[in-house]
């Protein structure tokens, strides 16, 4: 099963990915976290890793090589959402070279690639690579990939969502975030994603939760959980560490109950 966590920048995608990964692992699954947001710098820290793995981008010779490969594919008429740049037909977690996958606290982490320098060009190569990596990633019944997606909706245009079972939209208390959730749910449906749900995040009161739930329902999106604004999450992310047991880790249990009904705690 492949679950992608989408939403507005700063809505809490990386935090929700980390909370989900821990809770899904606790229920007996093997969790692979896929960091596909080229601007994330701290996901590995909030997951409790000392270091990030080497980018998958290096497996194909780095960004420049990939850009050259893509340019030649474009000139031979291939379109970006269908382009193939990986030589493998199938990616098994156990066959990912060790420098490109890290394991800690029972979780595995891969990282597609980051923008590191100014003027290095757009993130298109990462989009192409993410799509193909997710399409070819082969998981068994107990394997779940949790994908930390880049902010916004560009990845839908690149076809990144085509192999996803579930899109989970993180919605923070703002109009922008709600509007983006509407766009995402339409694009996810167009991409053939089976299930699109939303989780409210950084919610400060039950009244706020009720109002936001109504707003989501008006937009035809089902909220499956409410994660409270949690000072421990704020402190942990600021200090670049894994959050301790906190309100938010309790709240995420309801979200996992809805995502994996057969694995209720
Ligand atoms: N439930 C929460 N409670 C308190 N702060 C939160 C919560 N979720 C996210 N945050 C704060 O919001 C910031 C952005 O979260 P992050 O997961 O990095 O967003 P994104 O990945 O969507 O850009 C974090 O640094 C953290 O301080
Ligand atoms: Mg993030």
Looking at CATH, which topology would you report? Rossmann fold
Number of helices: 9
Q: Tell me what the CATH architecture is.
A: 3-Layer(aba) Sandwich
Q: Detail the poorly predicted runs.
A: none
Run of helices and strands: EHEHHEEEHEEHEHEHEHH
Structural class: alpha/beta
Helix content: 25-40%
Report the sheet-strand fraction.
15-25%
Structural domains: how many: 1
CATH homologous superfamily annotation: P-loop containing nucleotide triphosphate hydrolases
Overall outline: globular
Q: In what order do the strands lie side by side in the largest sheet?
A: 4-5-2-7-1-8-9-10
Structure summary:
With 265 residues, this protein is of the alpha/beta class. The protein has helices at 13-26, 43-46, 63-75, 124-136, 154-157, 175-190, 206-218, 231-239, 247-259, and strands at residues 2-7, 30-35, 91-92, 102-104, 107-111, 137-138, 143-148, 166-171, 195-203, 223-228. The strands form two sheets. Strands 4-5-2-7-1-8-9-10 form an eight-stranded mixed sheet, sandwiched between helices.
């Amino acid at each position: 099963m492949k679950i992608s966590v989408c939403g507005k920048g700063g809505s809490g995608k990386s935090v929700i990915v980390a909370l989900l990964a821990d809770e899904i692992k606790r229920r007996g699954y093997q969790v692979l976290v896929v960091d596909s947001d080229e601007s994330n710098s701290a996901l590995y820290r909030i997951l409790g890793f000392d270091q990030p793995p080497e980018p998958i981008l290096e497996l194909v010779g780095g960004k420049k090589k990939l850009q050259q490969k893509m340019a030649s594919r474009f000139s031979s008429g291939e379109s970006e959402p269908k382009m193939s740049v990986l030589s493998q037909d199938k990616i098994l977690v156990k066959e990912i070279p060790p420098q490109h996958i890290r394991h800690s606290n029972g979780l595995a982490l891969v990282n597609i690639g980051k923008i590191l320098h100014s003027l290095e060009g757009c993130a298109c190569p990462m989009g192409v690579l993410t799509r193909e990596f997710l399409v070819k990633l082969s998981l068994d019944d107990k394997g779940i990939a949790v994908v930390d997606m880049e902010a916004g909706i560009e990845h839908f245009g690149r076809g990144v969502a085509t192999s996803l079972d579930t899109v989970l939209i993180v919605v923070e208390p703002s109009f922008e975030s709600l509007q983006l959730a509407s766009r995402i749910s339409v694009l996810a449906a167009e991409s053939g994603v089976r299930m699109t749900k939303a989780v409210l995040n950084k919610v400060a009161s039950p009244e706020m939760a009720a109002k936001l739930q109504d707003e989501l329902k008006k937009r035809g999106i089902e909220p499956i959980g409410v994660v409270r604004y949690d000072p421990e999450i704020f402190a942990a992310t600021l200090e670049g560490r894994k959050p301790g047991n906190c309100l938010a880790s309790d709240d995420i249990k309801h979200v996992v109950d809805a995502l994996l009904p057969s694995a209720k705690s």
